[in-house]
Amino acid sequence: MSKGKLAKFADMARYENVFQYPYSVVENVPFEMKGHWRDMYFHNDNPIVLELGCGKGEYTVELARLYPDVNFIGVDIKGARMWTGATQALNDGLKNVAFLRTNIEIIDRFFGPDEVQEIWLTFSDPQMKNVRKRLTSTYFMERYRRFLVDGGIVHVKTDSNFLFTYTTYMTERNAFPVLFSTTDLYHAEGLDVDTMRILSIQTYYESQWIERGLNIKYMKFRLPSAGDMAEPDVEIPVDDYRSYKRTRRSGVDMRK
């Protein structure tokens, strides 16, 4: 029988690879590892990669397996989901994995300048009604800049036509260098070695979407640390399908 939420939260409270700072308490609790993840937790000088909105942590854990010389941190507010990846990482003895349970809106409170090399956004909620909540909006890009190295890479993997189109316009509007982009990842040609390696990682829901015939979109671009940013002034068609176990959303609010 699977564990209930209370049992999972009890586990998380004692897990050495989990740090819990939800929005409701972070104001009163200083985060001493800000700027010191390498020396205080990982005990190495390897690059740090974040997965924001990591869900069950499947991607975080599998990336850590593929790249043992890279430190990975999964971030999400849903502790009961995160328990799966955190437990797997502990059971498998993966020392290059950590999990941070917090609100992504305050992610810059946990990392110092130039502390992070890359960010993964895997199947983020497209937030079609609220631009400020999209993880590729200027609202979040400004926060990423505070801890991402200059020209650090942002990966976006999604089943959402809306989010992929919006992010494409974002990169064009702000002249972010796009390293690779495809609307059909599993049938794309010209993939680099690293992209080919990550094709072996599929979350449970991703496999369901692929079975239903939905194309998986992927892009990676560099985020410069300087320069003004602006939202794309375009109307984007909303997704006209229902993703796996996801209710349909309609309407677009482009207000900042």
TrEMBL record:
Pfam families: Methyltransf_4
Entry-linked SUPFAM superfamilies: S-adenosyl-L-methionine-dependent methyltransferases (SSF53335)
UniProt-listed InterPro entries: SAM-dependent_MTases_sf (IPR029063), tRNA_(Gua-N-7)_MeTrfase_Trmb (IPR003358), tRNA_methyltr_TrmB_bact (IPR055361)
Catalysed conversion reaction: guanosine(46) in tRNA + S-adenosyl-L-methionine = N(7)-methylguanosine(46) in tRNA + S-adenosyl-L-homocysteine
EC assignment: 2.1.1.33
GO molecular function: tRNA (guanine(46)-N7)-methyltransferase activity
Positions bound to substrate: 159, 203-206
Enzyme class at the top of the EC tree: transferase
GO CC terms of this entry: tRNA methyltransferase complex
Recorded metabolic or biological pathway in which this protein acts: tRNA modification; N(7)-methylguanine-tRNA biosynthesis
Binding site for S-adenosyl-L-methionine: 51, 76, 103, 125
Keyword Isomerase set for record: no
Record carries keyword DNA-binding: no
This protein's UniProt keywords: Methyltransferase, S-adenosyl-L-methionine, Transferase, tRNA processing
Family membership noted in the UniProt record: Belongs to the class I-like SAM-binding methyltransferase superfamily. TrmB family.
Entry function: Catalyzes the formation of N(7)-methylguanine at position 46 (m7G46) in tRNA.
Protein name in UniProt: tRNA (guanine-N(7)-)-methyltransferase
Originating organism: Xylanibacter rarus
Organism lineage string: Bacteria, Pseudomonadati, Bacteroidota, Bacteroidia, Bacteroidales
